[in-house]
Amino acid sequence: MKLLVVGGAGFLGRYVRAEAARHGVPALGTTTRAEPGRGLVRFDLAEDRSIREAVPADYFRDGRPVWVVVCSCTTPMDRCRTEWDYAYRVNVTNTIRLIDDAAAAGARAVFVSTSYVFDGDAGYYPEDWPHAPTSAYGQHKSEVDRYVTATHPDSLVVRLDKIVGADPAEAHPFSDWWNLYRAGKPAVCIADQVLSPTLVDDLAGGIVTACRLGLRGVYHLTGPEAFRRDHLARHFYRVMGVPGEVLTRPVAAFGLADPRPLNTYLDSSRFAAETGFRFTPMSAVMTRFRAAVGRAAA
Ligand SMILES: NC(=O)c1ccc[n+]([C@@H]2O[C@H](COP(=O)([O-])OP(=O)(O)OC[C@H]3O[C@@H](n4cnc5c(N)ncnc54)[C@H](OP(=O)(O)O)[C@@H]3O)[C@@H](O)[C@H]2O)c1
Q1: What is the per-residue pLDDT for 155?
Q2: Which domain holds residue 251?
Q3: DSSP type of residue 266
Q4: Which of 30, 45, 72 to mutate to test the pocket of ligand 1 (most atoms within 8 A of CB)?
Q5: E strand residue ranges, the chain
Q6: Protein residues with CB under 6 Å of any ligand 1 atom
Q7: pLDDT at 48
Q8: What is the pLDDT of residue 90?
Q9: Alpha carbon of 34 to ligand 1 centroid (Å)
Q10: 71, 93, 142, 170: which to mutate for ligand 1, most atoms within 8 A of CB?
């Protein structure tokens, strides 16, 4: 098998490529950058161009099964509302075209979806809970998530919640909070937001595991722990051993263009039961982050 990681230079995409390499699975990535760099080819979903034109001529025809892992999305999230036409073309119209083109070439897709396909009222959603997105980002993801499920039953949809990392040099909530502390500023969190933080390494591991096992259908891919965002920040500062200040504000006070649902934590027990995959507890992720900060300071 081999992987084609669309959005392969992004946060998750880089980890998926590295995880594949650890298993001896070739993984080509795509980026919109003019000079893609090693292991990447240029591909922009804003352009009406088939993925088959972006990869080497025999890419889909060398006998190995191909999984196209779709990690791409317009970021930051607010652009889905403020630049609706552009974002819809990238996130929906041309992502569906990408998945159709990949299927026509004999590949199977892994579409990276989100907990934001749900309304955020109940929380702890199972896979078959009805979609009711409240944000433009969630609407875009929901359209493709439902299309893939209905049209390509051999493909896979993985829904994620909040991605975190153990590397202080990368952009994610823990490095944001650490940088705020070092700048003498408080971490200001959306009040009453409950999420399932999940280590990016585990998400990459889960996606490669799912491809190796040939899973199909919809799976929630999150750690089993759920935290209020401000509690997670307080735990983080406690593990870091620093008196970081954590404040909460109602979501309306953040002036965000695209609304954020509050209860986005997911029930991911199906994936764990079917694969035996174990997610890293947040305490261990924070301890790894602290060790990395210590190494950088030494
Ligand atoms: N981060 C989270 O907490 C979170 C939570 C739930 C779901 N997700 C989903 O997980 C996926 C990965 O997230 P991430 O945090 O890794 O995001 P990220 O670091 O912002 O990466 C997004 C990727 O999308 C690519 N992209 C953007 N516009 C594109 C276009 N027009 N054509 C082709 N590629 C384009 C980017 O490519 P280049 O910049 O290299 O050109 C980049 O690699 C996304 O689908 C996101 O919606 C993320």
Answers
A1: 97
A2: 164-194+225-266+273-297
A3: B
A4: 72
A5: 2-6, 27-31, 40-42, 66-70, 108-114, 156-160, 163-164, 187-190, 194-195, 198-199, 217-220, 227-228, 246-249
A6: 7, 9-13, 31-33, 43-46, 71-75, 90, 112, 114, 160, 162-163
A7: 87
A8: 98
A9: 17
A10: 71
With a cut of 50, list the residues of the chain below it in pLDDT. Answer: none
**H-only helix segments in 106-190:** 136-151, 173-182
- Strand, helix or coil for residue 275: helix
Residue of the nearest CA to atom 26 in ligand 1?
72
Residues 9 and 104 grouped into a single domain: yes
CATH of the domain at 181: 3.90.25.10
Q: Please give the structure tokens belonging to residue 273.
A: 């039961």
CATH of the domain at 28: 3.40.50.720
- Nearest atom (ligand 1) to Cα of 32: 41
Name the closest-CA residue to atom 12, ligand 1.
71
| Cα radius of gyration rounded to whole Å, the chain | 19
What's the pLDDT at 114?
98
Domain count, the chain: 2
Q: Give this prediction's pTM.
A: 0.98
